[in-house]
Hints:
- The chain is mainly α.
- The protein is built from six helices and no strands.
- Helix content is 64%, strand content 0%.
Amino acid sequence: xxxxxxxxxxxxxxxxxxxxxxxxxxxxxxxxxxxxxxxxxxxxxxxxxxxxxxxxxxxxxxxxxxxxxxxxxxxxxxxxxxxxxxxxxxxxxxxxxxxxxxxxxxxxxxxxxxxxxxxxxxxxxxxxxxxxxxxxxxxxxxxxxxxxxxxxxxxxxxxxxxxxxxxxx
Length: 169
């Protein structure tokens, strides 16, 4: 189990071979504006703020989601490498320019706004992954992306729960 994850194993990546088209399709989920990297940084920032606000239960949940997103980043990076792209933090590996910027992270500090930003990020991630599934021809990669979507849906449910709790405080 990696952080807050759906109760199902991740499919293996053994046997993935060079596939430039799949690299092009999945790389935005790795280190672009709406990527796993952005999600990780945003969740860690928001968890720190929640901790400072003495809202430790939300801090712990966001940290668990961040850990799950770290696992997704690891999976995506491994697949990119296996498909022939060096998984550098750019908008489209293996290009060594357009390096990742933290400007995409939402730095809100008000509890409702933080969770709204996180909900929006999860909704966008789900849309992005579903779009990838429609374009991918590689079945093995599609199965892995489908599994990641299950985690993102769990994260979204969790965030909606947090939002309901915050609104009733």
